[in-house]
Every structure is written in C-alpha cells, then in structure tokens.
Write a structure and sequence with these properties.
Residues 34-92 form the CTLH domain. One of its GO terms (biological process) is regulation of DNA-templated transcription. InterPro entries: CTLH_C, LisH, Quinoprotein_ADH-like_sf, Topless_fam, Topless_Znf, TPL_SMU1_LisH-like, TPR1-like_2nd, WD40/YVTN_repeat-like_dom_sf. The chain is α+β, with helices and mostly antiparallel strands and 1133 residues long. It is built from 16 helices and 57 strands. Helix 3 packs antiparallel against helix 8 (136-153) and helix 13 packs antiparallel against helix 15 (714-727). It is globular, with a radius of gyration of 32 Å.
C-alpha cells in the first residue's frame, strides 16, 4: 500500500473514532495492521477477552513470527490455562492445553510437560514457580506489564504503537478544502451554494432551495472577492425547521422536559419574546434571515478574513477545519468573524501568589487589572503590565460581635477561611468576596491600592458557595447562595436583605442572574444537579430541572446575553458542557471532549459570543459555540492543576489560568500582547486607573452590564485598537514576541541549577522547645487546623506543641517566627501508650488523628489507645497483642471505622463504636507499614514491609489489585524488609509510594507506575517522604541528614537542604530525620522528627517564598500527576 493510502487509513481511523464507531475502528486497526491500539489491547486483557485478544493480535503478528511473538502468545494462553485451573474447570484446562499450548511443545518440550503436570495438583500454586500467583486481577496485571514490554521490543510492532499527530477532524478539513477548490472553478459561483452530495464534483447550477443569508462583513476587512462557499460538513444533514414560536414564560422549561438535544437554532428568551439586537453587547451587522440551520461540526471557524478568489493552493494546506468563505446561518447571535487564532493561548506571564488560587476576575473597564481570591482567604489585585500586586486584604472578620454564634464558634476553632468566589461589580467600583465560612465581604475600589471595606454580610450558615451582582428594579444588588440550601439577595449599598429563595434540597452551588428586556431572574444550581429559576418576588421557583448527569453546575450566558450554557461535574467525575434551549428547558447541544474522571468541578467561561473554554485534565480546552467537538486546547506550557480555574477578560484577548505552583498564568492572543505592551511602554501608573474607574453605576443593566458609560482610558484605547488589528488578521506582533519568549525559556534552561541550602542564613528554621526526656521521634503530624504539632517518641510518650496567637502570629498557626509551647494539661499527665510486655524501642509505633483534632488513636507495640487531645486522658484501650498494630488510618467518611495494619501482615477493619472487627484483609507477606484511603475511588491502599502495594474496595473489602515495588537493581539486598509508605495526592487518584530506595507515583486503582525517582547513593537511604499540603511538592528526608524537595508532577529534585542549615555542628553525634510532616495549609512549611528526639520546623526565606525553582520541563516528561483538588485528611507521618 502506498504511503498516501496508508495515511488515508489513519484519517479514516480518526474519523471513525470521532464518530464513535468503536468496533469498526478496532476492526480497521486489525485488518490494516497500521496502528496497534495499546489501550484497547489492555482493556481486553484486563477483562480476560482472550479470543478477541488473539484475533486483534493476528492482524499484526503470528505465533511463530519471532521469539517475541511466541512469548506474547504463550503468556496469554498460559494465563487462560491457569485461570481455568483456578476455577477447577479441568475440562476447559485440558482443552486449552491441547488446542492452544501444545503448539509450544515443539519449541520447549520440558516446559510443556511441566505445564501438563499442573493438572495433577489440587492447587497449581503448590508448584514452586507459581507459589506467588495471586488472584486473577493481579495476575492479569502482572502479565499485562510483561506483554507491553514484549510488544514494545517486537520489531513487527515498530512504528505501529504511535498514532500520528493530526489536527481534529482532518478528513473533514481536506473535504472542505476540496469543495472550496471546486467552487473556485465554477463559472458562475453562487454566494452561498447549497451542497447536497459528495458523490460527484460540485458545480453551481440554478438556485435550488432556500438561500443562505449574506455573509457578515466588516469594513475593516476590505473587499472579499468571492464570499461564496459551503456550509460546513457535519454528521447530520442540514436541518431547516420553521422558526419556532417563542414561549412567553419560564414555564417553557417545564413544558417539554426531554433531555434529547434539539437541532433547532432558535434559542428563545426565558421571558417574553424579545428583540435580540437590543441586547447585543457588541452588535454586528445582522443576517438578512435565519433559516435555522444548526451544524454540529468539528472545528467550525470563519474564513472571511482570508478568503481568496483563486489559486489558494498555498493556503489550502493550512486552513483549519471547515474554514470556508461561508456565511454561517446561525447568525442570530450576533457573531462576528473570529477564528481560533483569536483565542488567547500564548503564555506571557506567571504571577506567584503564595497560596492556591480559587477564583479570578478581570476588571470590566481596566482590563489589565486582575482580581484574585485564594484558599487562604487573601484578596489581591494585580496590575498585569508591571506584574505588581497593587492591593491585598487577608481574611479577617471586621466586626465579630455582630456575627452569628455559629460563625463565632467556627472561627474560635479555626480562624481561617477559603475564598469560593471573587467578582467585580459591572462598573468595577465594588468587589464581592464569598468565603467558605458564612460571610460575604464587599469592598469599594477607587483605583490603585485604594481598596476599602464597604459591607460585611453574615450571609449563610456554612459555606457561601457563589456570589454575583444584579440590577433588579434599577438597583445594584448582590446575589449569594450557600451550603444552607438558600439563595439570598442583598442591597449592595446598605447590605439590607431583600429576598430569600428557598426550595433546593441540597447545598446551592452557583447563581446566574440575568434579564431579558424587562424580565429579571436568577438561575440557581445545587450539588444534587437541580436547576431552579427565580423572579424577584416571593412566589417560589419557576423552574425545576435536572442538570446533565445530575452534576454540580455553573451557568453563564454568552456576552450578548442570547445564549445560555452550563458546565458541571457529577460525583463520578463525569463532566458535561452544554448549551440550553431556554424556550424548552432542554439541552440544545452537548460539547464533547471533557474528561470522564474530572478532579473537582470543571470551571468554564465564554467569550466573544463565539467560544467556550473549560479547565480540565491539566489543560484549557476550547470549543466553538456552534460545534460540539473540541476545537483546540493548550497546556499553557505545563504546570496546570487537573481542573484549573479560568477567566477571560471582557474582550476575550486575555485569559487567566490558575497553576499548580500557587500562581496564575496570563495567556494572550496578539491583541492581548499588544495591549499589555502598549500600557507597559506608556509607563502606566495606578492613578490613571483611579480616574477611569470612578464611574457611576448604570441605572439598569444585566449582570456584567454592557451598558456602562465610562471615560476613555489607556486600557480602552489599546484594547479597541488591538481588536481592530485582530479584525485585519494582522499577526505581526506575534513575530516580535514569540522569539523573545522562546529565548527566555532557553536561557532559563541553560542557567537553571539545583538550589543548595547549606547555611542557617539561607532558610528559616526553628527547634521546638522540649524539657521532657529526649527520645527518638517515631511519628510526627501537624494537627488538621495547623495550630499544633504532635510527635510520638520511641518511649511511647506523645508530645504536643501549640502556637499562641499574638502580634507576630495573628493566625496562631505553626510558624518559624514564634516559639510554640510544649503543651500539657493542668493535671500534668502525659499521653503514654500501653507497652504491655514489649520493649517500646523494638515496637513499630503508629498513630492517627481525628479530623477535628479532638482525639488521637495510637499504639507502641501494646494495646491501641484512644486519647482526648484536650485532657490527655485515655478514653479507652483495645486490641491487645499479639499481633500488634503497626499502622492506623481513619475511614474518611466515618471516624468510627478504622483500618488497622498488623504485625502479622493482616489488616483489620474495626468499628470503634461497637468494638467489633468487621473484616480481616489478607494479601501481604510481612507487617503492614502504610494505609491510605481514597474517598474518590472508594478504595483503601495498603503497603507492607514486603514492598508490596494492595488495593481494596471499601464497599465489599475485596482485593482489586496488587503490585510489587520495582526495587532498583543492586539495592534489593540492602532492604529486604524496608518499610513502604503510601499517601494519596489531593486528587485522590495518584498515589505516592515511599521506600528507602525510591519515590514512586502510581495511579490507583490499577496501580500503574507513572514515575519513579531513585536518589543518589551518597545521600543514604530515604527515611521518609510526604506530599506538601497542595500536592505540588514532595519532601524527602535521608539518612545523611539532608532533605530533598521534589516537584511532584515531574519527580525532579529542585532543592536540597543539607543538615548544616538546621543542625548545629556536632561531629561526634550522627543525627538525621526519621519522619517528615507537612503543614496542612502552608505548602512550603514542613517539620522534621530527628533521631536525637528533636523536632525542627523549616520554611524558606520570606524573600524567596518557596524551596528553589522547578527545572525546565523536558520533552517526554509525561503527564503531570498534580492537581488542585481539595482534600481533607492529613496523612500519618
């Protein structure tokens, strides 16, 4: 087959895959033998579909092709044979032996005899070589790993394991280019030809059928000589319904609750029929008619800015899919001729904030100002051209005395709060902040650093989940929703409560105020997937509807207010991005390409009445509003969390995206780059913002009102100028910028080096005061509040250090800037574990802390003790040895259930309340040394001194998978029974495994090893390691006393802290860390428990802010395993 024919097969494979012809795709892969789909192969092997496995393989190789192929078929048939024996199905085993395995007798008769003899054994595991055979799942997993290696090494599979890099819907693109070419050759080309078939060449004949509208044009674009062309190809033919009559009330949502997408393009208003043109934010020339065509295509983009009359061969190969000189019929939404080139995808700056970003919003007038809210409750305003933080407010209740008792009690226990939403008012003079605890803050902003307290509202019981501004009755209001299942409306000037809307049966997740002409309303969504709509009255909800997949959903309108979209993620991690037909309350179009296992709720935004964007799977994904298929995506040069927070500016030329490293990346298109450069070059100062930002609120408008009258400013002039250049498709500015960015990146990669900290002046460290007997620190943990550190020494005594609130430490959290107190109750008693008859020095100590820090469960070789953390009194003891407990973990959903790892290698699932062992899990060969629950996957992962990992379902407690750690060659003998620890990443899917020889990242529940890091031997064995609280870093302690800081997503060492930085010189005493613990909310703070009994807290210098810088990303570094999802449990150290 020729090279071009081979490439055509790949195009067809892509087309079939996009159209979801799943069986046909794999049949063509097999019959052509061009592409071996390893993922499909893995799924078949994992499911034991042996006939399909061999049939698929037969398209690429035969049993006797070479030794690799022979081994592949042998391993598959041997596994099939062993599974039959395991099921005691002797007849089937004999059949497999004769039909499938006998062929190998000619090559190795002895092996065939040995396999035959397995029939005589009651249990084939009695054969020494098969003694370690586990269950079916684990055996298939082990075999699959071996098969993958054999396939990759087999020369017959060379160049068949990688699918070529193709743009989306490449076959459609080529067909469109062909049609475009044919149309150029027409003698009498029609402006809008009607295509009915691909079976014959096109030529323009007499008009037939309805004509499409004239193209949207713009005088800035100049003449468009031949604006004819074809409607984009789609999976469905053109659909031309009569325009639907618009319903006259919200009840339209209730009238036809069909979840099936409707192809009609008529997105009628939610209230009365309205003149859409009056609502356009940036009105364009409207079409002459609307035949209601709805093309659900791949990468729909307009070509008006680069259509040519003839001889387009030099451009044809570069045209994105469906770029044809065509007027899109769906023009009732006031679209203009933007293309995907207009999307902001170039990273132009990164802002480092110091804590995780939860919400961002661009100023509606001065679009170079970015508002940011963080998980630590900080509100910040950044001026982008200068990269400067021009205003900041940390979390603080302004008037605690007026707050509810519930809020006061919550703050007394933990004086911190995360931000759920920050948003500018439509005119940019107010800032709304919704916190995770009860309250809303409204700040007034007069430009520069002039940020003043305006209103403090004790809005909801529990978390305030969302906040928005609206203009009912010509009055600016704040709409809030919360964990208490209620929506409330407040006067934005006085703070007076105006409306309370009740009716949701679950926490309200988001609100979306809007208006159609004189009808003002609010959409609300809840965590159970219910959508409701409210008018500003007390008549209750007008709409009760289910979000796709019963997901936690946010809703947003296009900029011109005519199209409604929603994006959400359900509890299973399935995400949905859809457009709604408001008139019918039905999904009009679903957008494909979101992940099936999203972490957290996927956030989205709209821009230019044309594009949608969502943060998902460590990238930002883009869609054309008129196409269900993914348009493009960007990873923003890497470093994004699994579900990044995203926000466009008003013009859609800048995009803010949150990062793993507690920062925000600013992406820009050519206009955005030009805007920032223009302002930067004019020595922008904040006083100019003040003069332009002080504007009056409009008398009436919508949320994000387009009708605001504001004075012209540098930002406005630059933005409008940039937009004009964008219309002319002038991308010359990119030529100026990209090489500079590339050069900077190259320069950074040249000069990057590992940060070495050798002296106490290079970091902040604090040795915790201790007047008790100094004994080796065996276990160490921060309390979940971050206010204290708990240690368990080898003599079975616990020590608790508490930090006090004072002027130098206003939060009272653990810090190196103030000394804590070694705390004891007035009774003077110590929390001391039962040691029975054992020597505590020989025991394996363990403990676990309850979520509310009120009690600790602990053991040091004797009974397990439950202590009250306030009084230090022993509440109860249970489970006397033997066997002794060696690891403890609380169930994430039920503090009464604990998993107890035992000295005898078993795991006991114990109910404290009824004093009963629910079940025993057996799968390890040596004592249990680590346990970690995932509340996302509903599994428990265990690790043992046998260097084995096991996955157990928390539903039925059956074993799902097991994996032996890959010990580096030459180091296995040094660590025959070394402890192995496990800890879940915040995303609850990726798993950190710690062994004295290595750090490894696995993906649960299949335990696929994604990355492995083996330290230099000079450091000595690893003594312990743990994730930072945001899971972006891994702190590793070594026997030589040093601590390494790794970037979690790449497992690359970026900083080494040598013992001379935190220990006084003492050559006669060898001191090193045994355990390391990380602060629950400060990602750059950690504590070390040492062999001499000392506990040290370390932080980077304030001027540095973090431990070193990440090395430049290398090609092939693999997918990031990092995530920005929230977690709750502190791992045991």
């Amino acid at each position: 087959m020729s090279s071009l024919s081979r490439e055509l097969v790949f195009l067809i494979l892509q087309f079939l895959d996009e159209e979801k012809f799943k069986e046909t795709v794999h049949k063509l892969e097999q019959e052509s033998g061009f592409f071996f789909n390893m993922r499909y192969f893995e799924d078949m092997v994992t499911n034991g579909e042996w006939e399909e496995v061999e049939k698929y393989l037969s398209g690429f190789t035969k049993v006797d092709d070479n030794r690799y192929s022979m081994k592949i078929f042998f391993e598959i048939r041997k596994q099939k044979y062993l599974e039959a024996l395991d099921k005691r199905d002797r007849a089937k085993a004999v059949d497999i032996l004769v039909k499938d395995l006998k062929v190998f007798a000619a090559f190795n008769e002895e092996l065939f005899k040995e396999i035959t003899q397995l029939l005589t054994l009651e249990n084939f595991r009695d054969n020494e070589q098969l003694s370690k055979y586990g269950d079916t799942k684990s055996a298939r997993g082990i075999m699959l790993a071996e098969l993958k290696k054999l396939i990759e090494a087999n020369p017959l599979f060379r160049d068949k394991l990688q699918f070529p890099a193709l743009k989306n819907s490449r076959l459609r693109t080529l067909i469109n280019q062909s049609l475009n070419w044919q149309h150029q050759l027409c003698k009498n080309p029609r402006p809008n030809p009607d295509i009915k078939t691909l079976f014959v060449d096109h030529s323009c004949g007499q008009p037939n059928g309805a004509r499409a509208p004239s193209p949207v044009t713009n005088p800035l674009m100049g003449a468009v000589p031949k604006a004819g062309g074809f409607p984009p190809l789609s999976a469905h033919g053109p659909f031309q319904p009569a325009p639907a009559a618009l319903p006259t009330s919200l009840a339209g949502w209730m009238a036809n609750p069909s979840p099936v997408p409707h192809p009609s393009a008529s997105a009628g208003p939610i209230g009365l029929a309205t003149n859409n043109a009056a609502l356009l934010k940036r009105p364009r020339t409207p079409p002459t008619n609307n035949p209601g065509l709805d093309y659900q295509t791949a990468d729909s983009e307009h070509v008006l800015k680069r259509s040519r009359p003839f001889g387009i061969s030099d451009e044809a190969n570069n045209l994105p899919v469906n770029i044809l000189p065509v007027a899109y019929p769906n023009q009732s939404h006031g679209q203009s001729s933007y293309s995907s080139d207009d999307l902001p995808r170039s990273v132009i700056m990164t802002l480092s904030l110091g804590s995780a970003v939860k919400s961002v919003d661009f100023h509606p007038v001065q679009q170079i100002l970015l508002l940011v809210g963080t998980n630590m409750g900080d509100v910040m305003i950044y001026e982008l051209p200068s990269h400067e933080k021009i205003a900041i407010r940390t979390f603080k209740v302004w008037d605690l005395g007026t707050c509810s008792m519930a809020l006061q009690a919550s703050l007394a226990n933990d004086y911190t709060a995360s931000i759920n939403r920050v948003i500018w008012s439509p005119d940019g003079t107010l800032i709304g902040v919704a916190y995770s605890k009860h309250i809303v803050h409204i700040y007034s902003y007069q430009g520069g650093d002039d940020l003043r307290n305006h209103l403090e509202i004790d809005a909801h019981v529990g978390s305030v989940n969302d906040l928005a501004f609206s203009y009912p009755n010509k009055q600016l209001c704040v709409v809030t929703c919360g964990e208490d299942r209620v929506i409330k409306v407040w006067d934005a000037v006085t703070g007076a409560k105006q409306y309370t809307f009740e009716g949701h049966e679950a926490p309200v997740y988001s609100v979306c105020p809007h208006h159609k002409e004189n009808i003002q309303f609010i959409f609300s969504t809840a965590t159970d997937g219910k959508i409701k709509a409210w008018l500003y009255d007390n008549m209750g909800s007008r709409v009760d509807y289910d979000a796709p997949g019963h997901s936690s959903t946010t809703m947003a309108y296009s900029a011109d207010g005519t199209r409604l979209f929603s994006c959400g993620t359900n509890k299973e991690g399935e995400s949905y991005l859809v457009e709604w037909n408001e008139s019918e309350g039905a999904v009009k179009r679903a957008y494909h390409g979101l992940g099936k296992r999203s972490v957290g709720v996927v956030q989205f935004d709209t821009t230019k009445n044309r594009f949608l964007a969502a943060g998902d799977e460590f990238v930002v994904k883009f869609w054309d509003m008129d196409s269900g298929n993914l348009l493009t995506s960007t990873d923003a040069d890497g470093g994004l969390p699994a579900s990044p927070c995203i926000r466009f500016n008003k013009e859609g030329i800048l995009l803010a995206v949150s990062t793993n490293e507690n920062g925000v990346k600013i992406l820009a298109n050519s206009d955005g780059i030009r805007l920032l450069r223009t302002v930067e070059n004019r020595s922008f100062d904040a006083s100019r913002v003040a003069s332009a930002a002080v504007v009056k609120a409009p008398p009436i408008g919508t949320f994000g009102s387009p009708n605001i009258a504001v004075g012209t400013s540098i930002g406005d002039r630059a933005a409008s100028g940039a937009a004009m250049v964008g219309m002319n498709s002038d991308s010359r500015s990119l030529v100026d910028v990209k090489p500079r960015i590339a050069d900077e990146s190259l320069e950074k990669s040249r000069i990057w080096k590992l940060t070495e900290i050798n002296d106490s002046s290079q970091c902040r460290s604090l040795k915790l005061p201790d007047n008790l007997t100094a004994m080796r620190v065996s276990r160490l943990i921060y309390t979940n509040s971050g206010l204290a550190i708990l240690a368990l020494a080898s003599n079975a005594v616990h020590k608790l250090w508490k930090w006090q609130r004072n002027d130098r430490n206003v939060t009272g959290k653990a810090t190196t800037s103030t000394l804590p107190q070694l705390w004891q109750p007035s009774s003077g008693i110590l929390m001391t574990n039962d040691i029975s008859d054992t020597n505590p020095e020989d025991a394996v100590p363990c403990f676990a802390l309850s979520k509310n820090d009120s009690y600790v469960m602990s053991a040091s070789g004797g009974k397990i003790s439950l202590f009250n953390m306030m009084t230090f009194k022993t509440m109860t003891t249970f489970m006397p040895p033997p066997p002794a407990a060696t690891f403890l973990a609380f169930h994430p959903q039920d503090n009464n259930i604990i998993a107890i790892g035992m000295e005898d290698s078993s795991i006991q699932i114990y109910n404290v309340r009824v004093d009963e062992v629910k079940t025993k899990l057996k799968g390890h060969q040596k004592r249990i040394t680590g346990l970690a629950f995932s509340h996302v996957l509903n599994v428990l992962v265990s690790s043992g001194a046998d260097s084995q990992l096991c996955v157990w379902s928390t539903d039925g407690w059956e074993k799902q998978a097991s994996k032996q750690l890959q010990i580096p060659s030459g180091r296995a003998a040094a660590a025959p029974i070394a402890d192995t620890r496990v800890q879940f990443h915040l995303d609850q899917i990726h798993l950190l495994a710690v062994h004295e020889t290595q750090i490894a990242i696995y993906e649960a529940p299949k335990l696929e090893c994604l990355k492995q890091w083996v330290p230099r031997e000079a450091s000595g064995p690893i003594t312990h390691a743990t994730y930072s609280c945001d899971s972006q870093s891994i702190y590793v302690s070594f026997e030589d006393g040093s601590v390494g800081v790794l970037t979690a997503s790449t497992l690359r060492l970026r900083c080494r802290i040598n013992p001379t930085a935190y220990l006084p010189p003492n050559p006669s005493l060898r001191v090193y860390p045994l355990v390391i613990a990380t602060h629950p909310s400060e990602p750059n703070q950690f504590a070390l428990g040492l062999t001499d009994g000392g506990v040290h807290v370390l932080e980077p210098l304030e001027s540095e802010g973090k431990w070193g810088t990440s090395p430049p990303t290398e090609n092939g570094a693999g997918p990031s395993t990092a995530s920005g999802a929230a977690g709750t449990d502190q791992p045991q150290r």
